[in-house]
Amino acid sequence: MLEVSRLSHGFGRRPPLWEIPHLRWDGRSLVHLRGDNGSGKTTLLRLLAGLDTPRRGTIRWTLDDGAPAAPPRFGDLLYLHQQPYLFDTSVAGNLRHVARWQGWRGDDARSRIASMLARCGLADHARQHARSLSGGERMRLALARAWLLSPRVLLLDEPTASLDRQAIDDITALILSLRETGCAIVLSAHQQSVLTERCDAEWHLERGGLQVGDMQAGIAEPRPLGADS
Ligand SMILES: Nc1ncnc2c1ncn2[C@@H]1O[C@H](COP(=O)(O)OP(=O)(O)OP(=O)(O)O)[C@@H](O)[C@H]1O
Questions:
Q1: Where on the tree of life does the source sit, at the highest rank (predicted)?
Q2: 113, CA 20 to 30 Å: which among 3, 127, 188, 211?
Q3: Is pLDDT above 50 for 228?
């Protein structure tokens, strides 16, 4: 469970990008973080990932009963940038790094890597250098690498930006499969797509605040700037 309280952040002398009085997330759903370019989606995801420290407010992880939980460790929570960093090696080599990190060896490692390459449609690219992949393939490899770490929470920054329809469909299928494993996902996207249509909830950054909506019920609960909820 994620609990955000009186959170705000900004840069330099500029006013805060947004203020979020209160946000509670069960850490189970698939959330679409929506907002115009420059509204602060990446900034919020980076704060949730613990990569930056907020100017004001708190981000806490709790157990279901509200008791404090330790912040998720690397591997439990992963943040993927829209141009994901890939290791300077082959496609399979990128997955071998994770296999070593996980302590997998020999045939066990090889079969896990082969099945992940197949699942992500990258089997034919196994020996190709990762940095020569197309945009959609790079994102698929980044998701494959993340998947091998079995994250509990995945924060995806514009995973379908600049991709064509087929690539968006491929990434959508992968993200939905990852979610089936029980991984909670927040993904940012400034436009609606086949992927965002499959989300359970929407967090909408606009006019300096965050509106939370339940996509299934079609409800949006405005949380006005500065107000407690
Ligand atoms: N490290 C930084 N230093 C100064 N300004 C920054 C920094 N990071 C982000 N900003 C500014 O904060 C604002 C929000 O940026 P952010 O990347 O969070 O928006 P975004 O909603 O993710 O945008 P996009 O949809 O274009 O990716 C922008 O005006 C950006 O220039």
A1: Bacteria
A2: 188
A3: no
- The two tokens of residue 207 are 């006019």
What type of residue sits at position 213?
Answer: G
ipTM value greater than 0.90: yes
User: Which mutation among 14, 37, 43, 188 tests ligand 1's pocket best, with the greatest number of atoms within 8 A of CB?
Assistant: 43
According to CATH, the superfamily of the domain at 2-84+150-221 is: P-loop containing nucleotide triphosphate hydrolases (3.40.50.300)
Residues sharing a CB contact under 8 Å with residue 115, sequence separation 6 or more, in sequence order: none
Model confidence at 215, pLDDT cuts 50, 70, 90, reads: low
The Å distance, Cα 208 to ligand 1 centre, comes to: 13
Token digits of residue 40: 């602060």
How far apart CA 40 and CA 37 sit, in angstroms, is: 8
Residue nearest to atom 6 of ligand 1 (CA): 11
CA of 206 to the centre of ligand 1 (A): 14
